[in-house]
Amino acid sequence: MPPPEAVTEPAFTRSFRMTDRLKPDAAAGGGLVIGTDGTARPHYWGHRERLRTRFLEGGHAPMPDYEMLELLLFNAVPKIDVKPLAKRLLATFGDLNGVVAASEHRIRQVEGADRWVYLQLRLVDAFAQRMAQAKVLQREVLSSWQALISYCRTCMAYRETEQFRVLFLDRKNTIIADEALGSGTVGHVPVYPREVAKRALELNASAVILVHNHPSGDPTPSDEDITMTARVAAACEAIDVSVHDHVIIGKDAEASFREQGLL
After folding, report:
1. In a 10 Å sphere around its CB, with 0-12 CB exposed, 13-18 middle and 19+ buried, how is residue 71 labelled?
2. Separation CA 63–CA 194 (nearest Å)
3. Left (φ > 0), alpha (ψ -120 to 50) or beta: where does 4 sit?
4. CA geometry: angle at 117 spanning 11 and 215, to 5°?
5. Are 253 and 160 in contact (CB under 8 A)?
6. What gap in Å lies between CA 115 and CA 118, rounded to an integer?
7. Quick one: DSSP state of residue 9?
8. 89, 109, 211, 256: most buried by Cβ count inside 10 Å?
């Protein structure tokens, strides 16, 4: 036990502010509903089962984004109404893409969100990436170019920081591996040409496609991007590995160095 004069603090601070969720002016709103038998119940009583039934019977198309997010949050937050949390997340990050791609630090800044909410979002992101990846791995790159771009957008378009990925190809231009070789800040990611070349040798790759994202949303190559690409191309050329393209992923568009004559 601490001495009587010691000033103590809680071992941890809650990541959200507790509110009376049955008050009409609280975040959940709605208050209590009086049933036909005179019993007072929370306004959201039975809401989860109704929402699940609507999804199973009618699919996701007619459901707004916040309801889709509610269905996901049911697995992370027991019993209480999660509609306000779903709407707070969408208001903070703009849309479902932004919510799913957000970092744990930013997610947990939203009232009511904890590590279990973040876990559910990471699971959705992982499933989306694996499903998109299955459409491009072991496929000839030219015949699956749009699927490749869709995969890269799924992985990177809404990231809050830059990431550098390399797609490794064999002699038939089939993608044999996809690896993230660098993560950085909002405006920069460190790239080491020798690491790209070394990994290409380890995989016995004949060519590579470089991919990175611009969190700003604008995929226009910067002078630094152009210089870095030239250095990677030189390192790969020394071991007889071609750089087929460097694609920059933005939120709504992408830029190809090959199409712009930069490679």
Report:
1. middle
2. 49
3. alpha
4. 105
5. no
6. 5
7. -
8. 89
